[in-house]
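Example 3.2
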Amino acid sequence: KEVGLLDADIYGPSVPKMMNLKGNPELTPKNLMRPLKNYGIACMSMGFLIEETAPVVWRGLMVMSAVEKLLRQVDWGQLDYLVIDMPPGTGDVQLSVSQNIPITGAVIISTPQDVALLDARKGAEMFRKVHVPVLGLIQNMSVFQCPKCKHETHIFGADGVRDLAETLGLDILGDIPLHVNIREACDSGQPVVISQPQSDAAKAYLKIAKEIVRRLPVPPA
């Protein structure tokens, strides 16, 4: 499948580092930006348009304008899926995206502790208000396994996201463990599904991806 990844976190773009991409997008003859590509995925991010250490100090209207440009003024080509990575919360970015393009479904990601669940719940309720189907929730950093003794510790709580999913009448799409390999892979720009495809961490991501695709409507032929 052809997949695009749009980094809609204008204030803190992380896709360039996590996908090991640098540089400015080229322009097509029609003055559209060409996404940068790695691991077979076309990526677009505010991080390609500003210096890596430069802060984005913008008000809401400028943020919404930037999101619009990243959506509309990019030559995405023929994609099967466009994944939009949004920042936490229910602010300008989420409203701009949900009001400007038809979204097939939203996925809510949260760690299990109560403080994070407050934002996760607001996010789910917001998508419902703007008539975007919520495909399910993902429990991130669900468990830590000691590499020496293999003892498992629920650092952020055991079942917070599961309890929230039950309250909202939603499904859990999967659990992602708290593992040093995931952190190292993200920081080095080598996704764990590429660098360690047989690891338990990679299998957790692949299982979630399959669950998401399974819940999406079949596109017309």
